[in-house]
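Shipment paperwork, digital attachment
Item: protein structure file
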Amino acid sequence: MTAATLFTPKMNPELDDMSADAAIDDHTLETDMNRGHEDRLVEDFESTGETAPTEAAQLRKLQKKLRRQVSWAIRDFNMIEDGDVVMVCVSGGKDSYTLLDILLLLKRIAPISFDIVAVNLDQKQPGYPEDILPAYLNEQGIAHYILEKDTYSIVKSVVPEGKTYCSACSRLRRGSLYGFAKQIGATKIALGHHRDDMLATFFLNLFHGGTLKSMPPKLLSDDKQNMLIRPLAYVEEKDIIEYAKLKEFPIIPCNLCGSQTNLQRAIINDMLREWDDAHPQRLASIFKAMQNVAPSQLADRELFDFEQLSLERDDNERLFEGDNIQAGQADSLAEIGLPISPKTQTFNPKFMSEQQHSSASDQAVEQIRTTQKIPTINPLI
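Attachment content:
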């Protein structure tokens, strides 16, 4: 059974005040927040004698960084256009909370007009705290749908005991959200996958799937009915973790399906974190490589036509032909003043080893002196 309920709470007037004086960059959809509002937040903390002003400044700086990175991703991949209805999938995790929060900030300052609809899919896992997310969305004044569909029972029935549920659960969740997006007229589906998710998927496919592919920042569904976007494509997971902590999002953990400790993705994530600690620029370099693909330097025959490669050489430019050095080119070389035969150097017997020199007669040395020559090709040719 599938049910969906739309909740449209009253907007928090304080949220509107945040964007009252915001400036707009037409190219990047990025700008500073209303500093007057933020300064008032700091003053409020100071008046109470708390130590939160440092956290407020940290939050402001991090929020600006995330807003800039999301703006760049939207611009680079043309994710959101004027008149779009963006369905933001909110699971209750740190990634989707951050995505929704940043997109709402951008909506208020963007030079284009677009709508945001938050959608949560309640998959009926046992023990799921179904009141946490709606309470947060209502408190923030965010219009949202709660879509109820018992995919948990389906996953349990089709996945063998001892296997992980994530793959089947993801497919069912995606199918439900795709269909619902069409029903409410959403033109884009925004998912909370970040840069590290894309890198982890790349290595999962590389190590276990035999393919070079990942999560693209923008994707048209196979049936061409839905457009997926990942506005957090440039955002690092560690920044999202810090942002969620500073914002105090009510996180709903994804451990309701039982122990999933042997997931290959978890192993890959541990590997990426170790790399990031030991080599801070390595992940950035790998992600840049995903945006800088050279098909001719790989081996995919579908991606590059290796069979049709051919030489484009002019035979008149040849100066050397096999063993006949400079064959057929003597006249042309002489005209431009280049030598037409290689220089030679007489062999010097003083470089012979002592054993060779003692065993060789004077006559033999003289013969070596006159017969052994070392050809030297003119380096100008």
